[in-house]
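[Q] Does anyone have a clean structure-token version of this?
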Amino acid sequence: MTGPVPGRERLFVALLPPAETLRELATAVSEMTGGTGATGSGAVTGGAGAGVPRLRWTEPARWHVTLAFLGPVRPETRPALAERLGRVAHRHGPVGLRLDGAGRFGHRVLWARVAGDLGPLAAGVRRAAVRAGADGGDDRPLRAHLTLARVPDGAIADLRPLVRALGEIMVPSAWTARTLTLMSSVGGPSPSYSVEDEWDLSGSSPAGR
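[A] Here you go.
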């Protein structure tokens, strides 16, 4: 992510899974790691995680689906951004989602895959951000996921055994995303997140179109 810029907040737009989904996934992660994952930074030393170095595990309360990372945003941009994101939320309806296995970004990040028709909603969010002047973020294609753990800088890890093990343990969990959330990110490798604003997905299309 882009580093801090004086006078600006790092913002992103996300969907937050319900508590039940978080608990189910946390249970699967804990089972896979023998209790070291999803509750703190623990070394995976046995079972499927044999040979994997210490990982930085993300607490379940911080798991979210990022629709768009906006990067550092000027304070004067916030009113227009909020107005446009509110319009997007009012045009798009609730979206059905489900956990659908695990994956990785190279040898750096372990994640849980999120399946569902998020393309239209994510595209609407990105258009709204650009039109509001919050156009300094990441424009890579959406790959919906919940980040579970990261490999510390300087470490090398083969995450493939964890991806396979988690995929076998995870129970498919479905939920309906009903709220669009604007969040801020402060800090470095383990940033703190805060909810800045929320809007109900109140449109008529259940698929988010």
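[Q] Thanks! Anything notable?
[A] Residues 40-52 have pLDDT under 50 and may be disordered.
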